């Protein structure tokens, strides 16, 4: 064999070896990232008596003993059914409201001329990262004084306001790009601003609205802090995040129920993730800068 | 489901959007009664009104009010000057809270960005990259509460001679001979890092997806040129790819800094700040609900705002410049 061939053989071997390492690392990372969620799912399906005494992975070898009893228990006894509904009733209006309000504002910013427009917009950009913790005490006092503390409208309004700066920012940057001729034509045809907005601007903004809706919905669905503060002491309207976190404190080691409850709360987000992956990723990416 | 709850649902899903749409039509028909010149002046503000009102009442005014409250006593009846801040910066248990936030700040963004970058670069070279990306991104979909439950379960501890039920201890015992199981959330030398890792697990997916997109945007020609010049793969990575990705790294880093300063749910669910793991947001919650000390709670909130201020100014400058270009 010529020296050149030998060298080539060695590089081939080392390249194969490094490909092997690459695959091992990547497969390892994927497994490592999935393992915690898989462990949760498996655990939630195991009978209560074995969860505290053996690791969840032992359930993957025969004899198989899986049960839906934990799910039945948390849905009937631990109010997870009610909380699931509450999470939906909180998340849907808290998504629709800020998007509509933001769309009005974004339309004004994009297609109307007025004094102070740029200053006001920059001010809203500044609000983008305000930690909502800074608003908790005064807003809670306002809710208590007006009697809405502990009711769903309180969280709807709060989430709408907290989501607004980002929604305005995102929708404005989208609406800025809409063709001006389209607006001119509509106006020459005698369309009013309301007609232009509802028949032209809103329908053409669907891609931005969809990403925004997914982001805001997920954000509200997964929120703990806002619900914890404004719905304190009203278990009948609390969402799943609050119910689960109080289960963590009271159950201590009741892992079979906690894991089932946590998995129920993950069902919808995971469904959105696998069903609408492209929009989901776009929504989360767009929302990454929110405060 | 009772009738009142059903009524609420209908109001929520249909009533609110309808009312908002009705507002716009009412505004437009109301404007018809004005002179055309006046119409143009009033219209933008009427379209902005619902949003501006919400922001003013629930964001702007509360922030200013909190600044004032932080200078008042626990029940907000007496002016105490900077006493609440002095308390935070001189009391041992409070300094632990600040130290922990600094620890999170030091570990979380760096760990998340470097892991995200590594995975983005590596996964670019294999055909099953969608699988890697999906697995790493999944935690982004779930709530921090669910993640807290998941990881409390992962970190479970049993005495060394008992079978380990926590995945982390079982895995390490199996891999490392003579490994002694650790109580991850109770051992004060480990628990803060254990908590940081949970947030890293959740956010690496986001960092990876953004950085991957930036990687795809790099001109192949530049890399080819460097290769022809005789640069090694390591040199290409360090001298060509990384510098080109720097702006994206900074954007991701900023996002992570904002996230970590406000960290709350993970700590609240997993340790509730016990054993030296408290952070500003969780401590603020305790001052509010456990101790009814609204002065200190507001001082903590103000500290968060001050810490985030630089990011706010950077954002305004960045977007301001974009506005000029338009």
Give an overview in words.
Chain A is mostly helical and 291 residues long. In chain A, 75% of the residues lie in helices and 0% in strands. Chain A has 14 helices and no strands. Chain A starts with a helix and ends with a helix. The mean pLDDT of chain A is 87. With 326 residues, chain B is mostly helical. Chain B has 2 domains: 2-69; 90-325, Orthogonal Bundle (MetI-like fold), CATH 1.10.3720. Chain B is built from 13 helices and no strands. At the A-B interface, helix 1, helix 4, helix 5, helix 6 and helix 7 of A face helix 1, helix 2, helix 4, helix 5 and helix 6 of B.
- Structural class call of chain B reads mainly alpha
What's the number of extended β-strand segments of chain B? Answer: 0
Q: Specify the overall morphology of chain B.
A: globular
What's the domain count of chain B?
2
Distance between the termini of chain A: 65 Å
- Helix segment tally of chain B: 13
Q: What fraction strand of chain B?
A: under 5%
The CATH topology annotation of the largest domain in chain B reads as: MetI-like fold
The residue ranges of chain B in which pLDDT falls below 50 over 5 or more consecutive positions are none
- Give the averaged pLDDT of chain B, no decimals: 89
Whole-Å distance between the termini of chain B?
52 Å
Quaternary: heterodimer
Largest Cβ-defined interface: A-B, 112 and 111 residues
């Amino acid at each position: 064999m010529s020296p050149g061939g030998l060298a080539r053989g060695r590089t081939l071997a080392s390249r194969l070896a490094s490909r092997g390492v690459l695959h091992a690392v990547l497969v390892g990372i994927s497994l490592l990232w999935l393992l915690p969620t898989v462990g949760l799912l498996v655990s939630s399906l195991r009978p209560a008596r074995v969860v505290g005494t053996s690791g969840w992975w032992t359930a993957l070898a025969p004899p198989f003993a899986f049960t839906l009893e934990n799910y039945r228990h948390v849905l009937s006894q631990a109010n997870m059914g009610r909380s699931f509904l509450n999470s939906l009733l909180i998340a849907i209006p808290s998504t629709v409201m800020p998007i509509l309000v933001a769309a009005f504002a974004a339309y004004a910013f994009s297609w109307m001329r007025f004094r102070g427009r740029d200053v006001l917009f920059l001010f809203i950009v500044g609000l983008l990262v305000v930690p909502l913790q800074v608003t908790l005490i005064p807003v809670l006092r306002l809710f208590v004084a007006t009697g809405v503390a502990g009711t769903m409208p309180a969280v709807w309004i709060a989430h709408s306001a907290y989501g607004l700066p980002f929604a305005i920012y995102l929708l404005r940057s989208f609406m800025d790009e809409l063709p001006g001729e389209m607006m001119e034509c509509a106006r020459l045809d005698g369309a009013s601003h309301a007609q232009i907005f509802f028949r032209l601007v809103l329908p053409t903004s669907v891609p931005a609205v969809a990403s925004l809706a997914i982001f805001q919905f997920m954000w509200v669905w997964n929120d703990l802090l806002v619900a914890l503060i404004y719905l304190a002491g009203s278990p009948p309207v609390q969402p799943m995040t609050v119910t689960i976190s109080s289960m963590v404190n009271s159950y201590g080691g009741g892992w079979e129920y906690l894991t089932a409850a946590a998995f129920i709360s993950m069902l919808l987000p995971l469904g959105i993730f696998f069903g609408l992956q492209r929009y989901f990723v776009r929504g989360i990416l767009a929302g990454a800068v929110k405060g | 489901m009772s009738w009142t709850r059903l009524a609420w649902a209908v109001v929520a899903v249909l009533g609110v959007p309808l009312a908002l749409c009705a507002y716009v039509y009412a505004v437009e028909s109301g404007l018809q009664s004005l002179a055309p010149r006046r119409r143009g002046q009033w219209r933008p503000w009427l379209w902005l009104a619902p949003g501006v009102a919400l922001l003013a009442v629930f964001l702007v005014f509360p922030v200013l009010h909190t600044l004032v409250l932080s200078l008042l006593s626990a029940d907000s009846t007496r002016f105490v000057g900077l006493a609440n801040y002095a308390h935070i910066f001189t009391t041992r248990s409070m300094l632990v809270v600040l130290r922990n936030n600094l620890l999170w700040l030091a570990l979380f963004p760096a760990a998340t960005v470097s892991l995200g970058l590594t995975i983005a670069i590596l996964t670019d070279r294999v055909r099953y990259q969608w699988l890697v990306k999906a697995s790493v991104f999944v935690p982004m979909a779930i709530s921090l509460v669910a993640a807290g439950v998941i990881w409390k379960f992962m970190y479970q501890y049993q005495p060394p001679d008992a079978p380990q039920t926590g995945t982390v201890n079982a895995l390490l015992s199996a891999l490392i001979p003579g490994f002694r199981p650790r109580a991850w959330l109770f051992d004060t030398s480990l628990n803060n890092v254990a908590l940081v890792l949970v947030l890293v697990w959740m956010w690496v997916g986001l960092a990876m997806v953004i950085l991957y997109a930036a990687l795809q945007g790099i001109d192949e020609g530049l890399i080819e040129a460097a290769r022809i010049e005789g640069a090694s793969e390591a040199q290409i990575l360090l001298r060509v790819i990384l510098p080109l990705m720097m702006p994206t790294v900074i954007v991701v880093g900023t996002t992570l800094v904002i996230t970590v300063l406000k960290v709350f749910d993970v700590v609240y669910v997993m340790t509730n700040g016990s054993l030296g793991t408290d952070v500003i947001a969780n401590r603020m919650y305790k001052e509010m609900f456990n101790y009814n000390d609204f002065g200190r709670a507001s001082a903590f909130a103000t500290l968060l705002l001050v810490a985030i201020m630089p990011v706010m100014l950077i954002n305004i400058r960045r977007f301001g410049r974009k506005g000029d270009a338009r």
